[in-house]
């Protein structure tokens, strides 16, 4: 048997992946069960295959979470194997992060045919703070980013392949699976994929259109099969589609998770519909600065320079296909984020991180290839200077007055600029430039790892973690701590709620998904989330709730939480007809 040998390209890749795995798993249990809303759905799916398929919030299948279930499935399978814990919930996202780094490496390596630019892109991506945050968290954005990178890799392969249809079908399938992860958010990269192939592929133009159509059909099939099953399934025997006022996945995709995100209208509650200001002002917020903007100057300047230099390179077509793909990726996605007047969280920008990193990797490679040109050295120096200046500015603007770090960044940048100006082919310049660019975001990543993160809106960077009182700590089989600002779950309350609860379909009903999730995770039994995530879902109605109590399907009612129209009616009815039981400062109503 011949000895196993690692090629010069594979060894850096393995080192990159090992470092990424360490970064994404170090102190992974810091955040407990992180976003309790999705963790409750994971718990439910581990108890019921039906809940797993639909993405139900509880194992008795009252209603689903407000996203498709694909991102939940890896966590559910891990939980079925190893039980519910922070590691079983968060490790799938860490593994998806390692895969995402590998895919980005593959994208850049196919463009440059060199290992070091691909490694550089992978390092920049992995050390973007929002990347570290989301690949250690249980929101859908981790899987979404990985699937979109898979589609980008497949498209770049198609551009240079003599048989591209299979690659385009694979790319389209990944977009379809992205739709089953976060709905229309997956479609933002479609213009980048389609245009880069249509313009730079080798096939005749009409054949390119036919091949892109094949990819589009793959997207429709991969993303539509689950939607079709749910829409055709009798509504009376499946859970309510959370976030949809009319119990429809299609309406959820086009409404709450679609048009409403742009217009700001609340499609789940028409009474609260209306237009708000666009999101342009949010793009400059300090938490966005700390999360994703670190490499923007280098990415944009080097992308422009790379486009110009590629005209002299033998691989001009492949280089420009990649540059166009990543640039349109950024343009469409960032413009959409800026135009959003509806719900927006800064962690959405994780999908921009691989594009910025790829442009820097490709641009740095071409700068190295043509560094004998003075204009190239000066432009590369400008990118370095502006990126270093941005890093220092972020440190100061966000209240991180790390003068020693700022001084180090400036010193490293100056050293690199001086060597570049002298025109010497010295590796010290490259090392100093990379260090100047990476020191500040790397420290931000360490701060992100060290701090626990909980709830629906985690943020990366120093000082962005959850308050101590909000930390969900996994202790003795149940959670103790606040979820979304709610009262800590008391062991005394839990013991009272557990009395005879095995005879009921739901142990309790709580107002809103955040409160219900906290109790469900603690009890290990289904808890009815009245009104769904935002309290706006019309489930159950007052008449349905009364029927549940009379048929002894629901045992306890827990007041307080997220009140919608239905929840307010239910709470008023309960208070009027039942006597509260005070347990450790919490009012409980035994309604069944």
TrEMBL record:
Its main location: membrane. The keyword Cell membrane applies. The keyword Cell membrane applies. It is a multi-pass membrane protein. It is found in: Cell membrane. Residues 496-577 form the Putative mannosyltransferase YkcA/B-like C-terminal domain. Residues 66-220 form the Glycosyltransferase RgtA/B/C/D-like domain. It comes from Kineosporia mesophila. This is Glycosyltransferase family 39 protein.
């Amino acid at each position: 048997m011949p000895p196993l040998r690692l090629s010069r390209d594979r060894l850096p890749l393995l080192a990159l992946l090992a470092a990424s795995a360490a970064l994404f798993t170090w102190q992974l249990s810091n955040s407990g069960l992180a976003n309790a809303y999705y963790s409750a759905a994971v718990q439910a799916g581990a108890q019921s295959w039906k809940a797993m398929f639909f993405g139900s919030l509880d194992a008795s299948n009252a209603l689903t979470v407000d996203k498709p279930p694909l991102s939940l499935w890896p966590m559910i399978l891990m939980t079925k194997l190893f039980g519910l814990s922070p590691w079983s919930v968060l490790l799938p996202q860490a593994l998806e992060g390692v895969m995402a780094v590998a895919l980005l490496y593959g994208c850049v390596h196919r463009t440059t045919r060199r290992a070091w630019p691909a490694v550089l892109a992978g390092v920049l991506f992995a050390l973007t703070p929002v990347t570290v945050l989301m690949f250690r968290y249980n929101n859908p954005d981790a899987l979404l980013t990985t699937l979109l990178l898979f589609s980008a890799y497949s498209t770049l392969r198609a551009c240079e392949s003599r048989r591209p249809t299979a690659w385009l079908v694979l790319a389209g399938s990944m977009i379809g699976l992205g739709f089953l992860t976060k709905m229309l958010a997956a479609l933002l990269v479609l213009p980048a994929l389609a245009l880069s192939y249509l313009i730079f592929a080798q096939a005749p133009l009409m054949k390119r259109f036919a091949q892109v159509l094949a990819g589009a059909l793959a997207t429709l099939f991969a993303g539509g099969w689950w939607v079709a099953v749910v829409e055709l399934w009798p509504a009376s025997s499946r859970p309510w589609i959370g976030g949809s006022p009319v119990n429809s996945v299609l309406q959820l995709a086009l409404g709450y998770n679609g048009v409403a995100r742009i217009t700001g209208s609340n499609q789940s509650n028409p009474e609260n519909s209306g237009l708000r200001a666009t999101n342009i002002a949010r793009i400059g917020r300090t938490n966005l600065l700390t999360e994703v903007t670190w490499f923007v100057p280098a990415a944009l300047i080097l992308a422009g320079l790379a486009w110009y230099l590629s005209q002299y390179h033998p691989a001009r077509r492949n280089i420009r296909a990649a540059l166009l793909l990543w640039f349109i990726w950024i343009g469409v996605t960032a413009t959409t984020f800026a135009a959003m007047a509806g719900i927006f969280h800064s962690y959405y920008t994780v999908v921009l991180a691989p594009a910025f990193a790829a442009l820097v990797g490709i641009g740095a490679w071409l700068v190295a290839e043509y560094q004998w040109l003075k204009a190239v050295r000066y432009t590369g120096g400008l990118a370095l200077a502006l990126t270093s200046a941005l890093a220092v500015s972020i440190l100061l603007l966000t209240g991180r007055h790390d003068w020693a770090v700022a001084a180090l960044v400036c010193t490293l940048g100056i050293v690199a600029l001086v060597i570049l100006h002298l025109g010497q082919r010295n590796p010290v310049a490259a090392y100093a430039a990379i260090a100047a660019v990476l020191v500040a975001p790397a420290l931000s990543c360490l701060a992100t790892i060290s701090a626990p993160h909980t709830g629906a809106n985690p943020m990366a960077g120093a000082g962005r973690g959850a308050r101590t009182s909000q930390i969900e700590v996994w202790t003795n089989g149940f959670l103790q701590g606040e979820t979304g600002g709610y009262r800590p779950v008391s062991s005394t309350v839990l013991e009272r709620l557990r009395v005879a609860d095995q005879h009921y379909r739901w142990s309790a009903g709580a107002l809103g998904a955040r409160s219900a999730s906290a109790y469900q995770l603690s009890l290990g039994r289904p808890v009815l989330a009245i009104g769904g995530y935002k309290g706006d879902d019309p489930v159950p109605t007052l008449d349905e709730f009364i029927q549940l109590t009379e048929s002894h399907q629901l045992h306890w009612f827990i007041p307080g939480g997220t009140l919608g129209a239905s929840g307010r009616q239910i709470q008023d009815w309960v208070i009027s007809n039942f006597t509260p039981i005070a347990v450790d400062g919490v009012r409980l109503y035994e309604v069944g």
